[in-house]
Amino acid sequence: MLVAGCDIGSTTGKVTIMADDQIIAHSIVPTEPLCEDTAHKAMSQALAQAGLAPEDVEYVVGTGYGRLVIPFAQATVTEISCHGMGAFWADPAIRTIMDIGGQDCKAIRIDEEGRVVEFAMNDKCAAGTGRFLEETARGLGVEVWDLGPISGEAQETIKLSSSCSVFAETEVMTLLNEGKDIAAIAAGINQSIASRLSALVRRVGVAEKVVISGGVSKNGGVVRGIEQRLGVSLTHVRVDAQLLGAVGAAVFAKRALAKRSRLGERRAARRAGAV
How is the chain split into domains, by residue range? Predict the structure, then answer.
């Protein structure tokens, strides 16, 4: 049984291919102007990694903000459900997920079967999102993936006053030109994200285990800030946390294919009984 999940987000496209219940290939690519192009590129890379042809994959579920225009997906599922299911697949003891995307962030609570029971989304532009990190990193003159390591060197934290990514970028540049320590500014950027995400999680209720999904999960400064605020140790899962949405989509694809197979068997049995 070969299935795939395709998660088209605002900054990256992700694909995971599963054989039975094991991930055999995956890809993460930058989002193209057209979501359809992103989907094709991500799927092509994953297929090449697995040595498969497109027709070898029996069922594909699409998710993410571009899910409705994935040309090869047989079905779509919301990213909230997919991130919940992906985290549950990675560790069935997980109950709380923070999905930090490029343009939004979500706090999700799931039950003992991976079903979503509560969720909340940011309601204030790009504050608390990957886009906020990208804009402020640009103001600091560093790459976004450097914010975690740089902030780890800080002796203090300079708190940002702005939650808007545009104004925060300007504020960061001003602080830099005032001679403020770059590590302290980076720490303030990460703590701003951590503060907003922690408040969002408290709205749905913190139930352990807790995990971050999305690319921001790789930012150690944000991770440490959230752990300090929530008083929990975030779970490290067995797969790249940036893939959890695509993993969840692949799990839903597997279930849909199994259901279709069972329906086919029942119909065949009815036809055989009628002969």
Answer: 2-84+241-274, 99-230
Rounded to two decimals, the pTM is 0.89
Q: Which fold is adopted by the domain 99-230?
A: Nucleotidyltransferase; domain 5 (3.30.420)
Report the distance separating Cα 221 and Cα 173, nearest Å.
20
List the CATH code of the domain at 2-84+241-274. 3.30.420.40
Using pLDDT thresholds of 50, 70 and 90, give the confidence band for residue 104. Answer: confident
- Say which residue the tokens 């571009």 belong to: 66
Residues 35-87 pLDDT 10s: 999 999 999 999 999 999 999 999 999 999 899 999 999 999 999 999 999 99
Report yes or no: 103 and 86 within 8 Å, Cβ to Cβ.
no
Distance of CA 163 to the CA centre of its chain: 22
**HSE (CB half, 13 Å, CA atoms) of 39?**
23
Q: Is the dihedral of CA 65, 96, 189, 218 positive or negative?
A: negative
